[in-house]
Automatic annotation (TrEMBL):
This is RNA polymerase sigma factor (Sigma-70 family). Pfam families: Sigma70_r2. Residues 17-84 form the RNA polymerase sigma-70 region domain. It comes from Ulvibacter antarcticus. GO terms for molecular function: DNA binding; sigma factor activity. The lineage of its organism: Bacteria, Pseudomonadati, Bacteroidota, Flavobacteriia, Flavobacteriales. PANTHER family: RNA POLYMERASE ECF-TYPE SIGMA FACTO (PTHR43133), RNA POLYMERASE SIGMA FACTOR HI_1459-RELATED (PTHR43133:SF8).
Amino acid sequence: MMNGPERDRNKALGIVYRTHKQMVCSYIMKNSGSPEEAKDVYQEAMIAMYENVGQGKFKGDSAIGTYLYSIARFKWLNQIKKNSVRSSHHEKLETPEFQESPMTVIIEKEHKNAVLEVLTELGDSCKRLLVDTMYNNASMKEIVLKGEFSSEQIARNKKYKCLQKLKELIQNKPGLLQKLKGNE
């Protein structure tokens, strides 16, 4: 989206905008949002997605629609928390089922398998910690409550060490890095 001429970028952005607007706005309105709030959050998510793509933060590990939906969802959850609107309700928010193409499902499964392969080499403790914090979005407080760590700081330190070990493992396996990037 960002590599082509400006005309092509604008066209691609317009397609992404139109294709996913209804899904994101429906999600927000089903979860205590007004049509105006849905439109505002969607606009913010589009801007964030565009900037993230431009800065190289979006690696193409998922479909652009899934990525945009995720940004919008987190923006909405943050707005709910900030406004204290039904704050206990945010964990029960509806999540629509995605209708992804078979090819997307296969690619995502290959990526997950590659990630699991590396996580297995990290050891059980690091694997649990990274899966909980990165995939399950568990807070450090929640990790401490599970009983594996005596404080949030110790859990953060362990996560840092695990991430460093993960980087080292990926750097030592160039083929795996290509697999994670989607064989670009």
